[in-house]
Amino acid sequence: MKLIRYGELNREKPAIVIDGAFYDTSALGEDYNERFFETDGLSRLKAFVELNKEKLERIPENSRLGSPVARPSKIVCTGLNYADHAEEMEKPIPTEPIIFMKSTTALMGPNDDIIIPRNSEKTDWEVELAFVIGKKARYVEEAEAMDYVAGYCLHNDVSEREYQFERGGTWDKGKGCDTFAPIGPYLVTKDEIEDVNAMRLWLKLNGETMQDSTTANFIFKIPHLVSYMSQFITLLPGDIISTGSPAGVGYGLTPPVYLKSGDVLEMGIDGLGTSKQRVKRYEETL
């Protein structure tokens, strides 16, 4: 299944994709949130759609898409999970996963504007594969880890490099600014993805390809990430976990290139759709 959510920000409704068309599933009476995943909502949704397929209403054309998952308890990210990205960042290849948090207030729809924070000069892009936790995960064995994955999403891990590297402390303040986590368009259930370790991901800036790689190049694969993170953090249903970005970010170019007002980012991952974000400065939103 491909799950979407649509409508005004913070007032999104649930929907589903059938043969490329979008249909409202509000009659199920549930949003795609922690409780939905915790109580096997995917099975209920599948049964509901099969029973009501002819009755579902198509959503209005050009509807805004929100994150396909309602605000999760947390967004946990993986740093430097591609060797070529670690190299361009001039960092050693990790011997254990590097994990950090993005604030849930960074969550946004796949085609919403990215807002460069006030006083920022080094806002950057990072296309990533994200996955969604389907049930509570704590001290999970790697052999069982995929049982805890509900599905996959496209994610742009937007990053402010000065805040991340030059302002002291952890990476979090360069990662969690408002609009820094565009997710979607879809949550694609794992049964629809033949091989999660062979998915092409790419990103273009103003039409020019900046990133083009494959998840075959992961340093740490998803089962290891689930198991590893669950040793330190209880992962709850609906939590979004991002797996890291390949080479081609602005910070790694010579000279570095950062986002400016008017820029357009387009990106995609095989089977997970595409997204497009326009860039504005904070001052333009006032």
From TrEMBL:
Q: Which UniProt keywords apply?
A: Lyase, Metal-binding
Q: Which segments constitute the Fumarylacetoacetase-like C-terminal domain?
A: 74-279
Which Gene Ontology terms cover its molecular function?
isomerase activity; lyase activity; metal ion binding
User: GO biological process annotations for this chain's record?
Assistant: carboxylic acid metabolic process
Which Pfam family name is an example for this entry? FAA_hydrolase
This protein's record includes keyword Cytoplasm: no
Family according to the record: Belongs to the FAH family.
Q: Which PANTHER family match?
A: FUMARYLACETOACETATE HYDROLASE DOMAIN-CONTAINING PROTEIN 2A (PTHR42796:SF4), FUMARYLACETOACETATE HYDROLASE DOMAIN-CONTAINING PROTEIN 2A-RELATED (PTHR42796)
Q: What is this protein called?
A: Ureidoglycolate lyase
Organism expressing this protein natively: Pontibacter korlensis
